[in-house]
Amino acid sequence: MSTAIERFDDKTRQVFDQIGQTEVYEGELLRHRVYTRFLHWMVALFFFLALFTGFGIYMPWLFRWFTPIFGGGPLSREMHPWFGLGFVIFFGLQTLNWIKPMKWTAADTRWMRNLGKIVGGKEKHDPPDTGFFNAGQKVQFWEIVGGCVVYLITGIILWMGARTFGRWAVAVSYVLHDISALIMLGGIFIHIYLSTIGEPGTFQAIIRGAVSEAWAWTFHPAWYKEVTGRDPIEACEEARRRSGVAGKSTTR
């Protein structure tokens, strides 16, 4: 029996699928539907809008060149909390969209234990039980969930000011707000690296919504097996054999 959240999310996905479409070509798998991609880019947009206006507010001596983009310092200060609220709202919707696949499992614990080999390049393929998201992606997701909670609470305190919450609450909120922003910014840099250079082929998943089968069996083998019914190792070996045969035939 589906929950109210699942019914809402399914209906919203269907509406977005009618508005846009995802082209999946031969040798590819559907990774992210239109609704997921829309939420991802809205989250990214409002995060960076909040970040840039925040830089201009909290470190004007270093980032004062940001503020003219938003109409000057006073207007940047007015727009910053609204950008932050937009970020929290859209990521809240993304949380509903991803709550199931982001649940921590025993496979994620094993992935974390193997992190050194994965980062060091000793493991060319992720562990065979890596599903739709790996443990690293789940850690970042839940870090952002926690960050959104901190943003929302401290942001409201800073927005309302000392007259409502007192000087100590505002002072503490400034510190927590900034620390949370720096942690999230560091995570975003890692996210950008992995989605481009670190794991080639990942970026197109959130642009086009589809990924190659090779990408799927390399980075998310359990998910590949779930959607295709094929063993990822066997599929990889078969692709290598076909490539070898093709290579030999072209050299004759």
Please characterize this protein's 3D structure.
By secondary structure, this protein is an all-alpha fold. 74% of the residues lie in helices and 2% in strands. The protein has 13 helices and two strands. A two-stranded antiparallel sheet has the order 1-2. Helix 2 (34-58) runs antiparallel to helix 4 (73-98) and helix 4 (73-98) packs across helix 7 (135-160). The chain is elongated, with a radius of gyration of 22 Å. Residues 247-252 have low confidence and may be disordered.
For the structure shown, list the relevant keywords:
single chain; 252 residues; mainly alpha
Outline of the structure:
By secondary structure, this protein is mainly alpha-helical. The chain contains 13 helices and 2 strands; from the N terminus they run αβαααααααααβααα. The chain has a domain at 29-99 and 134-211: Fumarate Reductase Cytochrome B subunit (Up-down Bundle).
